[in-house]
Amino acid sequence: MTMRKRRPTTARRGALFALAMSAVVLFCPIGVWGQRTTEQFIPIGQSPGLSGTVTYAGEIAATDPGARTITLSRPADAGTVTVGVARNTRIWLDRSSVGRPTLAGRFADLAPGSVVEIHFRDPDRRQVAEWIKVESDRPD
Fold first, then answer.
1. Which residues contact residue 106 at a Cβ distance below 8 angstroms, ignoring those fewer than 6 apart?
2. Of 108, 132, 109, whose CA–CA distance to 119 is shortest?
3. ∠ Cα 79 81 82 (to 5°)
4. Burial class (CB in 10 A: 0-12, 13-18, 19+), 45
5. Averaging pLDDT over each range in 3-17, 20-34, 54-68, 115-129, which range is the top one?
6. What is the CATH number of domain 55-135?
7. Are strands 79-84 and 90-94 parallel, antiparallel or unpaired?
8. pLDDT digits (tens, 9 = 90+) for 16-47
9. What is the strand order of the sheet 103-104 is part of?
10. Per the confidence metrics, is the pTM higher than 0.70?
């Protein structure tokens, strides 16, 4: 007498698939995670859902390394805004205009006259930057 292996029924496989997909949707906010991990590769002003709505773009008017702040001149409203740069603020050198990949930057790369895009930790208060993209043509 031979024993046959029992194969899962179509209904059981369907239920397992639905359960697995539900777990993925509930526990893995892929869209947000994906945006955060790829943000550094998106050129200044082209971040889907962020650029122009929850980010500031403009030119750096002044920097204060002691206070770790930058003053941004915003042509859109002809004003300036001072933004805090925390030690864990991500700074990226956007070299897409010269066909080069993005590099990690540091506070010293935030020079007056540089064009930047800033995303804030708290979009309502807009005081401390979560990340800053700096337009750059710096070689490797």
1. 91
2. 132
3. 155
4. middle
5. 54-68
6. 2.40.50.320
7. unpaired
8. 777 776 665 555 544 444 445 577 667 777 67
9. 79-84, 69-74, 55-64, 115-120, 129-135, 90-94, 103-104
10. no
Number of residues assigned to the chain: 140
Q: Which tokens belong to 71?
A: 């003053």
CA distance 68 to 127: 12
Residues 74-101: tens digit of each pLDDT: 776 778 899 999 999 999 999 988 888 8
Q: How far apart are CA 74 and CA 57, in angstroms?
A: 7
Sign of CA dihedral 58, 82, 51, 38: positive
Rounded Cα distance, 40 and 42, in Å: 6
In this predicted structure, the answer to whether residue 51 has a pLDDT above a threshold of 90 is no
Average pLDDT, whole number, for the chain?
79
Q: Which residues contact 45 (CB under 8 A, 6 or more apart)?
A: 51, 52, 57, 117
Establish how many alpha carbons lie within 13 A of residue 84's alpha carbon, considering only the half-sphere containing its beta carbon: 10
